Amino acid sequence: MDVVVLPTAADVAAHAAGVVADRIAAQPALVLGVATGSSPVGIYRELARRRREEGLDLSRLECFALDEYVGLPGHDPHSYAAYLRREVADPFGLSAERVHVPDGVRADLEGAAQDYEQSIAVAGGIDLQILGIGTNGHIGFNEPLSALSSRTRVLALSAQTRADNARFFDAPDDVPTHCLTQGLGTILEARQLLLVAQGERKAQAVAAAVEGPVAARCPASVLQFHRRTTIVVDEAAASRL
Ligand code: GLP
After folding, report:
1. pLDDT tens figures, 203-226
2. Which UniProt keywords apply (predicted)?
3. Does the active-site annotation cover 143?
């Protein structure tokens, strides 16, 4: 596991975007796993800038979301499908069918989870997975005590995650109670992992993930098992290492 500590959040975004851009330059049809939340936004904006100003070709990417809320249709601006249209598909010049998101409004959610695993397999697996980390150590929406070998499935969100994500909604009660998320086993199958974290509020989770025991109480600690993982953090997020 490589850990890169940089002074600021802007440095984290620039460095991580460079890692992604180098992979895309070598392999334009990269299968890219895209996290949502605030952490990766700087990466997506830097990649879009390189596309506009430097001609980086993003049009052949195939993208897979990590997770989606249950019950929010794709036209709801709070859904991760809408987030990925705003931050990835449109600025990258990608057609909608190149950005896959689990179907959180299907009646048969378990079937939607299995179909999602299948669509990743059909694409040949994920080459590079971008990750954020929750304050409780979750990756995707794999909350503490998720099985380390878990697959894409329906999960209840923890009270802490719902409180953390309330800032994206009009009212705390509007945060969905359930999600579909790639499992920890699914994430570990990506060929390369790139986790970014910024700010003091992530420091404890980052320390547990990097230096703690591999344990279900910190799902991100499972990254210690992966052969090709890079963690890029600012000094605040690294402050407990
Ligand atoms: C969210 C997402 C994760 C994300 C994490 C951190 O709930 N499901 O994919 O990495 O929690 O969010 P943020 O980057 O907004 O701090």
Report:
1. 999 999 999 999 999 999 999 999
2. Carbohydrate metabolism, Hydrolase
3. yes
**Active site (annotated) includes residue 100:** no
Q: What are phi and psi of 100, to 5 degrees?
A: -95, 140
Q: Could you identify the residue written with the tokens 């570990």?
A: 188
Right CATH for 2-234 from 3.30.70.920, 3.40.50.1360, 3.20.20.70, 3.40.250.10 = 3.40.50.1360
pTM: 0.98
In terms of DSSP H, where are the helices of 126-202?
A: 159-165, 184-188
**AA letter at 124:** G
CB 19 within 8 A of CB 119: no
Distance from Cα 45 to the centre of ligand 1, integer Å: 17
Q: Is the dihedral of CA 193, 123, 76, 160 positive or negative?
A: negative
Question: If DSSP codes are grouped into helix, strand and coil, which group holds residue 26?
Answer: helix
- Secondary structure of residue 68 in the 3-state scheme: strand
* DSSP code, position 89: I
Ligand 1 atom closest to Cα of residue 66: 9
pLDDT value at position 136?
95
Can you name the residues that pair with 194 across neighbouring β-strands? 130, 230
For 157, the token pair is 């969100």
Which residue out of 63, 70, 165, 195 has the highest number of ligand 1 atoms within 8 Å of its CB and is therefore the one to mutate?
165
Please name the amino acid found at residue 13.
Answer: A
- State the complex-level ipTM: 0.96
